[in-house]
Amino acid sequence: MVQKDIFAEEALDPGHFRVVVFGSSRTVKDSPLFKQVYKFGEVIADMGFDIVTGGGPGVMEAANTGHQDRASELLKAGRNGHVHSFGINIKLPFEQRINPGVKISHEYQRFSARLDEFMSLANVIVIFPGGVGTQLELFYTWQLIQVQHMCHIPIILVGDKWDGLLKWLRDVPMNDGLFTIDDFKMLKCVKDSDEAITAIKKWHKLFVEEGGDVCLNWKKYKI
Length: 223
Description:
single chain, alpha/beta, 8-stranded parallel sheet, globular
């Protein structure tokens, strides 16, 4: 059963490392991308990390269900399955159901407040292919890190569908001096979810070495 309205207590638990996943709500269940993200969610649970999505269908459902299914298996096997599968939902004029992999949810009326919640929770941002909403989430995260309103955490873009956008960013606005190479390097592009996992492991190692204080966004980023 999905738990409601306990988001604040869970979010402020400093012992949990959280991976925020963005991506298309239109990704269908029999697609290679859905299957890839489902396996990604399983690995995140195996590593003992929480997962945070928008709580809807598509990529979000793949991440939440993969994570929750694996967490349930770990608990049954007597291993550590005490990880959280979050869904930060948005109220829309058309139906936006909460996917079955979400165990802790919170619904927002406004996209701006919802994005702020993502930012306060994130230790890592992983972005799979998506449309307008996914682009919004990418650029919102990137700007907040650029202007130091939140911690400098990894923004990991998964897949070659980002290549065209990255080329345009390099060739046009960066080439025109509208942002710097250091700004551009805040984005890390990887070929698949396996490479994303490798990057997350490296960042988590630093997180552990710093005693969990390397980036606690709920302290840094003020909603």
